[in-house]
Specification:
Blueprint lengths: L3 E4 L6 E2 L1 H14 L18 H8 L2 H4 L2 H18 L5 E2 L3 H10 L3 E9 H11 L7 E5 L10 H10 L6 E5 L2 H10 L2 E5 L6 H6 L4 E3 L5 H7 L4
Parallel strand pairs: 1-4, 1-6, 4-5, 6-7, 7-8
Antiparallel strand pairs: 2-3
Helix pairs in contact: 1-4, 2-4
Length: 222
């Protein structure tokens, strides 16, 4: 049985895409750039807020540090106030987390979202879950797929890699797990296609949250 389940946030626990898109569009509009449809944003997210901003900008602006810095400031100003407006847990997530909590599984979050927003969102949507670690992007720590954030959680909780499972919706998450040498579960309800999860060698792919329970109890099926 796995003792620690580490979850990605955006696209795994919560559908955050509308609030992310609204916040980037606010910054784009404020700075005189064309906005994007919400449908564009699943392909912009995943590598942290800075890369999200860079991907949203025209090519001639995305490489300008001053432009990106201004956009980041405007994005965070808006997102910090509106990050829970249209965000919601995916169907079955609350029930899954409560079941794992009641079964004695320790739960953690590893996100490329900046720490302030990660903490606020997790506290807002999952106040009854006793997270053992909630790690967002922090200055000086590389973003996923670098495995540093997973190693921080393991050091903090004292679980072994063999006792740990990592759950996410993207190739970035699967690569993070691979580099950290922990088992990975790809989920199909998030922002990225199943093809990407397969290309990045997810150990197993699930289509609904409750499918995770037997994997945690019995291990990765052979």
């Amino acid at each position: 049985m796995k003792k620690l389940a580490i979850f990605d946030l955006d696209g795994t626990l919560l559908n955050t895409i509308r609030d992310l898109g609204d916040s980037v569009n606010f910054a784009l509009d404020r700075n005189g750039y064309h906005t994007h449809s919400v449908a564009s944003y699943p392909y912009f997210v995943g590598n942290g807020v800075k890369r999200l901003i860079e991907r949203s900008l025209p090519e001639d602006a995305s490489g300008k540090a001053s432009v990106v810095d201004t956009m980041l400031k405007d994005f965070k100003q808006y997102y910090n106030e509106h990050c829970t407006d249209r965000t919601a847990p995916y169907d079955g997530i609350n029930e899954l987390l409560e079941h794992l909590r009641d079964s004695g599984v320790s739960l953690a979050v590893a996100s490329n979202k900046y720490q302030e927003a990660t903490t606020k969102i997790i506290s807002h949507f999952f106040p009854n879950i006793p997270w053992v670690a909630v790690q967002g992007q922090q200055e000086g720590i590389p973003v996923k797929p670098d495995p540093s954030i997973v190693f921080m959680i393991l050091a903090q909780t004292q679980f072994t890699k063999q006792e740990t499972i990592y759950i996410g919706d993207s190739g970035i998450d699967m690569e993070t797990a691979r580099r950290a040498c922990v088992d990975s579960v790809g989920v199909t309800w998030g922002f990225r296609p199943v093809k990407e999860l397969k290309e990045y060698h997810a150990n197993v792919i699930i289509s609904k949250p409750n499918d995770l329970v037997p994997i945690i109890e019995n291990g990765i099926p052979l």
